[in-house]
Amino acid sequence: MIRKYITEKRSWLLLLAVLQLIIIFVAYVDAAIPLLPVLYIVLLNVLLCLAFVFLRYSKETRFYRSLEAWDQTYDLHAVIEPGSPLERIVHEAVIAQTDRYKRESSANYQLLESEKDELLSWIHEVKTPLTAMQLMIERLPDETLQRQLMYEWLRIHHLLDQQLHQKRIPFMRNDLFIENVSLEPVLNKEIRALKSWCISKGIGFDVELEVEEVLTDGKWLAFMLRQLLTNAVKYSAASDILIRSGEKDGHTVLTIEDSGQGIDPRDLPRIYDKGFTSSRGRQDGAATGMGLYLTRQVAEPLLISIHAASVPGEGSIFTLTFPRENDFQRITGM
């Protein structure tokens, strides 16, 4: 800050220096003026100016130092009151700009909330004809056509479900209900939802649960499993998907293993990035790059860690490690 202060006052300091040099020059040129007393006076002037600058530095930079330390939030209490007319101009400009940003932020938030509510309402409205469509598809006599339509119906349903939960994720901490959740009914429900797709691809499930219950939120856990199982089915063919639960280092661990295409090692660090589709996903054309991203977003508030391991051409293993009971003390509002 002192360097900035000197830079700000350099014109005044240069003027004082030039005046002292002029006094010395006049005393040097005019023999009638004794040079030594003049040098003494100039030295006193320089010392006095330095002392004045030193004393004024603390007062004149107090406001700007508080402004520099301000974290640029809407709270201006950290910025001290201005002590000069120029500082008052800066302070008033900051207040005016902050008030404008507050108004714009509030308006944008209300607009986003309105759009979110409209979208959620639309998704709920669309679910009604989708349910009716599912019943109509199930009554079709042509099994081949039924499987094809059910697959497309499932894709639409899955995308709507992703969109619905994506809008809810920012507020999911207000919606958490942590309890002991039985894994078997949750898994069975998600597997049944994929039944027609799995039958058409010749995919089965091998479920072995050594640990039958986990401490988590059942609704959000079901969403995570839905994304992982959908990916496992999407990139597998004529094989079994293995689902295992157990205990490791005091944590419950759930693994989902498929024998599908696998993930390129170069893609593994990025599979949870929003919108990222691997090279295989681009070839498939159906990948959205949102499933694993949303899974990670949901896992963080639930304190569930996700680990992926994969060998291209052999399959992938996704491991969910659930927290201990005491870990949930970190979740506010529980």
TrEMBL record:
Query: Molecular function terms in GO for this entry?
Result: ATP binding; phosphoprotein phosphatase activity; phosphorelay sensor kinase activity
At the top of the EC hierarchy, this enzyme's class is: transferase
Its membrane topology: Multi-pass membrane protein
Q: Does the keyword DNA-binding apply?
A: no
Q: What is its EC number?
A: 2.7.13.3
Reaction(s) catalysed (UniProt annotation): ATP + protein L-histidine = ADP + protein N-phospho-L-histidine
Q: Which domain of life is it from?
A: Bacteria
GO cellular component term, pick one: plasma membrane
Please provide the record's keywords in A-Z order.
ATP-binding, Cell membrane, Kinase, Membrane, Nucleotide-binding, Phosphoprotein, Transferase, Transmembrane, Transmembrane helix, Two-component regulatory system
Alphabetical list of Pfam families matching this protein: HATPase_c
| UniProt cross-references to SMART domains, sorted A to Z | HATPase_c
- Cite the Histidine kinase domain residue spans from the record: 121-326
- Where is this gene product found? Cell membrane
What the entry lists under SUPFAM superfamilies is as follows: ATPase domain of HSP90 chaperone/DNA topoisomerase II/histidine kinase (SSF55874), Homodimeric domain of signal transducing histidine kinase (SSF47384)
Q: Name one GO biological process term.
A: cellular response to phosphate starvation
> Which spans are transmembrane here?
12-29, 35-55
Name of the protein described by the UniProt record: histidine kinase
